Automatic annotation (TrEMBL):
Domain of life: Bacteria
GO molecular function: acetyl-CoA carboxylase activity; propionyl-CoA carboxylase activity
Name the record gives this protein: Acyl-CoA carboxylase epsilon subunit
């Protein structure tokens, strides 16, 4: 492929400059390798606020299990 040869061409219609820019952006985005998201980590400060080993319960009275001892 030479430097003068286009990477793609429009075969039907007359796209505007904005439509061509959107197409090029989509092609560039799809051609990049997918990057795995960084794992979510909880800070030591946030972990220190949680009772050790306490499981949170959903439902009536569940708010009590969030911070009160059993």
């Amino acid at each position: 492929m030479s430097a003068e040869e286009p990477l793609f061409r429009v075969v039907r219609g007359v796209p505007t400059a904005e439509e061509l820019a959107a197409l090029v952006g989509a092609i560039v985005l799809r051609s990049r390798p997918a990057v795995a998201p960084a794992p979510v980590t909880t800070s030591a400060w946030a972990r220190s606020a949680r009772p050790a080993g306490a499981a949170l319960r959903a439902g009536p009275g569940g708010w009590c299990s969030a911070g009160l001892p059993r």
